[in-house]
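ARCHIVE CARD
CATEGORY: sequence design from structure
SOURCE FIELD: tokenized fold
FIELD CONTENT:
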């Protein structure tokens, strides 16, 4: 959706929409499915810029990082951004962000494109290492059995032989 900021100067702009975002647009392998994203909000003039306030809600299905089960969770979030409409940037390249720059968006011209803002919020709501539950036991590294369902039939594996010297040192310190 495109919002013309020059019109918002005189009257706040309100919207409410539901979007179907393909999971490929977020490029996150742990994201299995993304439900319809409902979001609503408003943009109003706040001299010298504009103030965007929005609320979004949707369901996302992720793959557990330990046991690989699909986990569906509801997500709701609020967003507040201060927007400054500006002419073309002085020059290409990177610049350092400061704390005062968080929550501030500079847009070229007088048109605000909301899709990049929405996609950024969806990305931020995907956990780095999703889990089906905090105490997920994961999969057996030998047979692949789901350890959340119980112990597997694999024999007890010996520790990594590279740690044998440290284990012996630990045992000697505990004995004496």
């Amino acid at each position: 959706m495109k919002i013309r900021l020059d019109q918002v100067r005189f009257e706040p702009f309100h919207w409410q929409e539901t979007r179907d975002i393909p999971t490929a647009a977020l490029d996150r392998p742990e994201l299995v499915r993304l439900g319809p994203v409902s979001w609503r909000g408003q943009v109003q003039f706040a001299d010298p810029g504009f103030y965007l306030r929005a609320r979004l809600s949707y369901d996302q299905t992720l793959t557990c990082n330990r046991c690989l089960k699909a986990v569906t969770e509801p997500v709701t979030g609020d967003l507040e951004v201060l927007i400054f409409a500006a002419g073309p940037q002085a020059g290409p390249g990177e610049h350092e962000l400061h704390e005062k720059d968080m929550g501030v968006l500079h847009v070229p011209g007088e048109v605000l494109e909301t899709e990049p803002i929405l996609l950024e919020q969806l990305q931020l709501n995907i956990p780095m290492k999703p889990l089906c539950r905090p105490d997920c036991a994961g999969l057996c590294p030998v047979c692949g059995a789901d350890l959340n369902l119980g112990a597997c039939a694999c024999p007890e594996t010996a520790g990594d032989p590279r740690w044998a010297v440290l284990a012996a040192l630990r045992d000697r310190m505990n004995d004496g």
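CARD ANNOTATION: The beta strands are 2-4, 13-19, 31-34, 37-46, 49-63, 70-86, 104-108, 111-113. Helices lie at 5-8, 115-124, 164-175.
SHELF: design records, drawer C
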